[in-house]
């Protein structure tokens, strides 16, 4: 099924993300985790794509496993380190496996700055995918601005280019303060970007994740969140419980405020995905209207 049709149903949806193995040896471990997460019957499951393209074979493999488990897969695809032949090869494979949804990304520029200089921005990839078949295309967006952007306004202009190039929905970078998303939604709607926005939520279940998150994306960490890390960071089980509760709280607030698409950066952790699903068991799947 195409994700745009799932989102058009107007109900809160929960989706999960997995990342593929780096080597064949770990394939079974990731496949097992994906299978466990698929048992939770999410609206869809996404599979990330290694920045250098090295894990691309496994992205298609895990995405087609997910399809076999009866869940709609979303395969990520990055372009900046890739060639046209490689991109066309992956799209051909996706078609052969009946995978209809692609998240089109530029990918991070490698540290040495060396790229084949075929693709420069995700919008070029979106255009190419659009011409290459009947895919439902998603893209990334950044409520706090992309790290390379001069400012949020310019970043939104480029987001508009991606939507005009043919993307059907966008998924946000993780954020820990919902008010950042609400003001972003207001501003992108003002700019005429009307595609569905799926909120990306990261349940932080160990303190080590925090360093990676801030280095990677410069995401703002509110004091309410930092108190949790300060207090529970050295107690793994407590940190995990508090991290799941924080993510659940964020999600309930988002759904209560009309944000229906919720995507969990579940990091191949079926137990974390399961707890969040359980916490929302009565909230998901209903259609809500606003009562005055
Ligand atoms: P773009 O949309 O191309 O934007 C990159 C930068 O260029 C931005 O600063 C933008 O403002 C600017 N820009 C865009 N168009 C133009 C233009 N025409 N002229 C000048 N500047 C322009 N990475 C992976 O390697 N694998 C994954 O699977 C993966 N999944 C992700 C999923 C989500 C939901 C998100 C939010 C990110 C993901 N990433 C992934 C990370 C992503 O690849 C990086 O954030 C990357 O640096 C930017 O990718 P993009 O597709 O947003 O790029």
TrEMBL record:
Keywords: Amino-acid biosynthesis, FAD, Flavoprotein, Methionine biosynthesis, NAD, Oxidoreductase
CDD domains xrefs: MTHFR (cd00537)
Catalytic reaction list: (6S)-5-methyl-5,6,7,8-tetrahydrofolate + NAD(+) = (6R)-5,10-methylene-5,6,7,8-tetrahydrofolate + NADH + H(+)
EC id: 1.5.1.54
Cofactor: FAD
Pathway recorded for this protein: One-carbon metabolism; tetrahydrofolate interconversion; Amino-acid biosynthesis; L-methionine biosynthesis via de novo pathway
Pfam families given in the database record: MTHFR
InterPro entries per the UniProt record, alphabetical: FAD-linked_oxidoreductase-like, Mehydrof_redctse-like, MTHF_reductase_bac
NCBIfam families in UniProt: fadh2
Name of the protein this chain belongs to: Methylenetetrahydrofolate reductase
Protein species of origin: Enterocloster hominis (ex Hitch et al. 2024)
């Amino acid at each position: 099924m195409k994700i745009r049709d799932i989102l058009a149903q107007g109900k809160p949806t929960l989706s999960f993300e997995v990342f593929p193995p780096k080597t064949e040896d770990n394939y079974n471990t990731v496949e097992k985790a994906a299978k466990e997460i698929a048992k939770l019957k999410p609206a869809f499951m996404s599979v990330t794509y290694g920045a250098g393209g090295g894990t691309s074979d496994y992205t298609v493999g895990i995405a087609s496993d997910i399809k076999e488990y009866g869940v709609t897969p979303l395969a990520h695809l990055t372009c900046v380190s890739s060639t046209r032949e490689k991109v066309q090869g992956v799209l051909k494979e996706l078609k052969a496996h009946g995978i209809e949804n692609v998240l089109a990304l530029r990918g991070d520029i490698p540290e040495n700055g060396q790229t084949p200089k075929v693709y420069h921005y995700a919008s070029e990839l979106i255009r190419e995918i659009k011409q290459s078949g009947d895919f439902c295309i998603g893209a990334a967006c950044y409520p706090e601005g992309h790290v390379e952007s001069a400012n949020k306004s310019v970043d939104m202009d480029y987001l508009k280019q991606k939507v005009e190039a043919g993307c059907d929905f966008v998924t946000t970078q993780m954020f820990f303060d919902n008010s950042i998303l609400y003001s972003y939604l207001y501003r992108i709607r003002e700019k005429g970007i009307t595609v569905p926005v799926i909120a990306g939520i990261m349940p932080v279940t160990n303190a080590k994740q925090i360093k990676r998150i801030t280095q990677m994306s410069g995401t703002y960490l509110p004091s309410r969140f930092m108190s949790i890390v300060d207090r529970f960071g050295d107690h793994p089980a407590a940190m995990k419980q508090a991290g799941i509760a924080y993510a659940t709280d964020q999600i309930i607030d988002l759904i209560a405020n009309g944000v229906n698409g919720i995507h969990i950066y579940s990091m191949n952790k079926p137990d974390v995905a399961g707890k969040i699903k359980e916490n929302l068991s009565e909230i998901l799947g209903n259609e809500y209207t606003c009562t005055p």
